Amino acid sequence: MKYNFDGRTFEIKRYPSTTNRSLQPWNAADELILEYISDLSDEHESIALINDRFGFLATTLFKLQPLSVVNYKSHQKAIERNYVSNSLVLKSRTIKTPLKSLPDTDIGVIKVPKSLEAFEFYLQILHRSLKDNGVIVCGFMTKYFTPQLLEISSKYFEEIEQSKAKKKARLLILKNRKEIEHQVVTIDIKFGDKVYKQYPGVFSSDHIDYATQFLLEHLTVKESEKNILDLASGNGVIADHILHQQPNAEVHLVDDSYLAVESSKMNVNESAHFHWNDSLESFKDETLDLVVSNPPFHFEYETNIEVTIGLFTQVQSCLKESGRFVLVANKHLNYKTHLDKLFKTCSITAENDKFEIYECLK
Ligand SMILES: C[S@@+](CC[C@H](N)C(=O)[O-])C[C@H]1O[C@@H](n2cnc3c(N)ncnc32)[C@H](O)[C@@H]1O
């Protein structure tokens, strides 16, 4: 999609791409942020962008060399691709993962995420690096507003201003940072006789997801299954269970979220292999004996199974001839129709009133 800004036409695309035309690479909240920042900033100011999911702001504001804090590998790829397709040069130091400290910052931007826990975590990152006279701009669609955004913001800032709504989007402008100390706090989840740890914003922080629990009740790893992947691994609870059943197996974990992968390193034996990625590009075809997954289908406020089906297709290629794919899903998603097309056989091996477990053979 084309966007005109600052005398130039930018071509901005989503990554991963979608055939759903209602899913756009930016929305009115991004436009409002851009308008505000371009009135505010001069070329010498340092800007940090958080959760700019498809790199709309990173690309349109390229002249200011903003720094992007990136949790999702797919976010990083979106920025890289949009820079290339607009013939821009991306400096390697302009992308940072969320556990790295930021340089002193004049303007922090947060595209408000769905998870309030993630919002607070992002706010903390910026609060730590913001100069005393710095400002934080948070953009969101008004339908997603909750007073908790104000409550959380007021823990860190004295002044909170709300902009007027424009095209159903609004900004929170935070100024005058409070002098408070805070550290990265992890969340504990007790499950069985173990306490799992995870960073804020990682999937299901109140409890181990019920679909995952159902999957683990029914998962038996065979002695012959030596090369195993926990796909979309979150905090690593599935990989941990696999390693308890087969301590000598070579277990891999893949997740698009950096904070999920870093969380899983706290929960899973260090002999496992941790991959921060949104695809199986680092696995060769026909190398895996078993892939286990509670796959994603929600992406912030969007429900989109294109990414999920894309992952299933890659699993099919990476499995050995004798390999199997075991996954759990909400019944209403009706994955069987898609899995039947990709795999030689696909059967439902367990179900309850909410979830189904599928076993697919290559
Ligand atoms: C339903 S959660 C499951 C997490 C964990 N396995 C569990 O059972 O608690 C799905 C996970 O998929 C991850 N994810 C989303 N898109 C992905 C992709 N393209 N590749 C790998 N992981 C992805 C999300 O970050 C999230 O951690």
The ligands found in this model are:
S-adenosylmethionine
- Structural class, from secondary structure content? alpha/beta
Please name the fourth-level CATH homologous superfamily of the largest domain.
Vaccinia Virus protein VP39
Which percent bin holds the helix content? 25-40%
Mind telling me the CATH class of the largest domain? Alpha Beta
**CATH architecture group name of the largest domain:** 3-Layer(aba) Sandwich
Strand content: 25-35%
Task: Give the secondary structure arrangement, pairings included.
Blueprint: E1 2-5, E2 8-11, H1 28-40, E3 47-50, H2 56-60, E4 67-69, H3 73-85, E5 95-96, E6 105-111, H4 116-129, E7 130-141, H5 147-156, E8 157-162, E9 169-177, E10 187-191, E11 194-198, H6 210-218, E12 227-231, H7 237-245, E13 250-255, H8 258-267, E14 273-276, E15 288-293, E16 298-299, E17 302-303, H9 306-318, E18 319-330, H10 336-342, E19 345-351, E20 355-361
Parallel strand pairs: 3-4, 3-6, 4-5, 6-7, 12-13, 12-15, 13-14, 15-18
Antiparallel strand pairs: 1-2, 7-9, 8-9, 10-11, 16-17, 18-20, 19-20
Helix pairs in contact: 4-5
The structure holds S-adenosylmethionine.
